[in-house]
Amino acid sequence: MPPGSSREDGVRRLSALFSKTLRDDPADAELASHRLLVRAGYIRRVAPGIFTWLPLGLDVLRRIEAVVREEMEAIGGQEVLFPALVPKEHYATTGRWETYGESLFRLRDRRGGDYLLAPTHEELFTNLVKGEASSYKDLPLILFQIQTKYRDEARPRAGVLRGREFLMKDSYSFDLDDEGLAGSYRRHREAYQRTFERLGLDYRIVSAVSGAMGGSASEEFLAPSDGGEDTYVSCPSCGYAANIEAAETAVPAASDPGDHPPIQILETPDAPTIATLLAAVRAAGIDVGASATLKNVAFTLHHPDGRTDGRTGGRTETLVVGIPGDRDVDLRRLEANVGGATVQPADLDGDDAPAGLVKGYIGPQGLGAEVRYVVDPLVVTGSEWVTGANQPGRHAAHVVMGRDFHPSGVLPAAEVRAGDPCARCGTGLELARGIEIGHIFQLGRKYTDAFALDVLGPDGKPQRVTMGSYGIGVSRAVAAIAEQSHDDKGLLWPAAVAPADVHVVAVGKGDQMAVATRLAEELEAAGRRVLFDDRGASPGVAFKDAELLGVPMILVVGKGLAGGVVEVRDRRAGTAAEVPVGEAVAFLAGGGGGPIR
RNA sequence: CGGGGAGUAGCGCAGCGGUAGCGCACCUGCUUUGGGAGCAGGAGGUCGCGGGUUCGAAUCCCGUCUCCCCGACCA
């Protein structure tokens, strides 16, 4: 008997349902999904980023979970369940006890042992497989779990969209070689496409940066939504799409660095910014725009280096990045491309300021060996710039890359803007926001190396296993669906995840309640999941709640009953049809009312 | 961590030196039933916490904690 049923007929009755709707919006909710999930009585907040699932919300969560599980099993995934509470040792092996930083919930047991609430389970999966799999015959292998995860987010937001406790499906593939890994990756990619289609989510697959996880190929599944936290670019012409952190844009052609006038030093007092610089060089007779200046921004990089012996480990370096002066640095993009290091703006005023860097007047030419100089891809060999002269009050013009300076590398650091040309076809890129609902990685051997995970090959020799890692945010998907699927009246659940198939409402003081009760029971017996508003509330309340709750079909037993008809409403389409009472159950159970359970 | 805002009933809010209030929700009774009903009665509060000023503090002062929003952060 489902929660909220008052009889053992399977019908879920609102009079007995624990969840209650709120007339007013909760004051702390900004996004529609958060507001509506709280108002409709699906979730309640316990602490920042920590929520209780009420009966209807739990129902939606479980429905999503079931779809995810089915699709994982369909590609041969085998379900396991790891503990959420794990001892430090497992994460110390890979250094993540340290490198995961402040987002890791750490705690201590009564004996002083360190534990953590797992934010992700690569280590445990790898270790488990090391203990259980010993032959190439055990591979390929896909294991998954649907588990509560913990991350001490700096700023949880928007209800279950970004919580500190959340439900996630994570799976891991173990293969003998790169080809096998590519196959496991592709199977996951296809399973994710099927999963999100079934969940009724609009999504985009975008190229991603693998970041601190290590590994190579990586794609994200983003649900387009203004409330999303990820920005991605997409090309309307060729279909290229990428997270902005991984976005590539067309770059200017390289040219011969020899074909330029010699460097000219300009006196530019009090011109430490691009705007003041432009005015100063104009006074010197050089009239250029901001895009012809080279802005050199200094950062301090902290490399954790996977240390396991203490918090103070790691290595620090000064990085100077050259980008066109008309653009800002995109710190997220830069950080996503520096291999797990943290990036902070360098302090050029303090006592520890790196030598040779003159604030406001940094140039790429003649920098000391103690700083690493790199350029954004937009800065190419043969390009000529107005830039700092590394002396207070002086800039240099006609500074040419490949002649006057030679960066040690290229790192994407400049902001990407709407309209920037697509790297593949040159069309102007579009920018949009999305919610990350899935992420697939080819991890490679980062974790199997750390744990020395080998199996014996057909030749009897040990072979290092290669891994993939794949996640779906199950609780986040509830918010993502709500975010994409609502109107001003309330939620609009896709049939596959709705907490019921039919919401039955009785309005009127005649036989309506009796007839509605009978229809609810018959519908339930016919395999429809029924939510029955048996409260006898006034019509306004009953209708508003039905719309707020978002069940796909609403059956109204009301004034039409006198004429022998009831009304069937399609919540999403906003349409309504009158159906003879005797045909109502067949109408709703006959395939037109959503999938059979 | 930086910037902004807020802590008063389950939810949304008012009150800003003189007995703790309103709307919704909740309980009882009667009426009402196609768009968040009406009447009558009722229950519910250490006004975030600590100190101070005052005859008297939700209200003024100092401190502190917490929460929300934006940014930083974030497989």
Radius of gyration: 30 Å
DSSP strand count: 32
The largest β sheet comes out as: 9 strands, mixed
Shape summary: globular
Give the distance, in angstroms, between the N- and C-terminal Cα atoms. 15 Å
Going by helix content, strand content and strand pairing, the class is: alpha+beta
What's the mean pLDDT score? 84
Low-confidence stretches: 306-312, 592-597
- The count of helical stretches stands at 13
Helix fraction, binned, reads 10-25%
Fold and architecture overview:
The chain is built from 13 helices and 32 strands. With 597 residues, the chain is α+β, with helices and mostly antiparallel strands. Strand 6 and strand 7 (114-117) form a beta hairpin. The chain is globular. Residues 306-312 and 592-597 have low confidence and may be disordered. The protein binds one RNA strand of 75 nucleotides through residues 20-30, 47-48, 101-103, 119-120, 122, 151, 153-155, 157, 162, 170, 208, 210-214, 218, 229, 331-332, 335, 342, 436, 439, 441, 469, 471, 506-510, 512, 536-545, 556, 558-560, 567.
Topology:
Layout lengths: L11 E2 L18 H8 L3 E5 L2 E4 L1 H20 L3 E2 L5 E3 H5 L3 H4 L5 E4 L5 E4 L4 H11 L8 E10 L14 E11 L2 H21 L5 E4 L10 E7 L5 E5 L6 E3 L20 E4 L6 H10 L10 E10 L11 E10 L6 H6 L5 E4 L25 E5 L8 E8 L2 E7 L8 E2 L19 E15 L1 H5 L3 E3 L5 E3 L1 E8 H11 L1 E2 L2 E2 L10 E5 L5 H14 L4 E4 L5 H11 L3 E5 L7 E6 L4 E6 L3 H6 L8
Parallel strand pairs: 1-29, 4-8, 16-18, 18-21, 28-29, 28-30
Antiparallel strand pairs: 2-3, 5-7, 6-7, 8-9, 9-25, 10-11, 11-22, 12-13, 12-22, 14-20, 15-16, 15-17, 19-20, 22-25, 23-24, 26-27, 30-31, 31-32
The protein binds one RNA strand of 75 nucleotides through helix 8, strand 22 and helix 12.
